[in-house]
Amino acid sequence: MERLKELTLISGSAHPQLARDIAIHLDKHLADAATDVFPDGECNIKVNEDIRGRDVFVIQPTCPPVNNNWVELLLLLDTLRRSSAGRITAVMPYFGYARKDRKDEGRVPISAKVVANTLVGAGADRVVTLDMHAPQIQGFFDVPVDHLYARPVLMQGVQNLGIQSPVVVTPDVGGTKMARAYAKRLHADLAIVDKRRMSGSETIVEHVIGEVAGRNCVLVDDMISTAGSITQAAAILRQTGAKSVVIAVTHAVLCGPAIERLAAAPVDRILATDSVPQDRANLPSNMEICSVAPLIAQAIRNIHLSESVSSLFE
Question: 52 and 79: one domain?
Fold first, then answer.
């Protein structure tokens, strides 16, 4: 398409494979950009193409190592601003520091607000992200935010499994809205695993709200970090008589003992997107990665052509 000639894609070092996949779907090449480090660990950025006046999309999830990828993204944005790019969009398939979206106790930061401030301050004119841990973070920005949902991608994965009469389960009360959206699309019932968080890495599952005995359960969440919550939820579903358990999650951050916990969990299938890079050789054998590249590519196309992005939510 003629108008796509003015679109430029740049990849940071966080997830180059996803960036390449997005570029393929847009029939574009990635701009020549060097993102390496000095011997002392400082980021060294250089864009080797003229991007003056162009519509530039920087693809960089702030996944682990979070701080390195965040700073690299900021420096990429600053590079583009100082190079007279026409519009700069930060494409963040995974938005780090989203857990701290409010002061829930004394003497703590609102980390998500700090990230928002620095992105805009460094030069972002727009932000594209996927399944934020706290969707209200969009309000921290004074630039447009396109908050995409991985639901259509994961829904296709669930439907491909041919699950009969599923019940959609959320591993905590906070995920009820997401689970209800899945349940509506699957014409399924809804159940909730009631848990209490003891610390950042420890939770206690108390009981299940809803009927899961003899049912095929689809356990949905936005993120797996240490996999403590999701595997405890799967275990209690089995204990209460679930016939099968499938996990569908957007961001497989998988830190600490996550892979070992998932491998040992009583689940039949694990579906996750590629919003975060994975060493697929080390993943559990029952884990399948569903690509969000087509979804993000379509969002980039629509933004560039000033077409609807909300049409991608269904």
Answer: yes
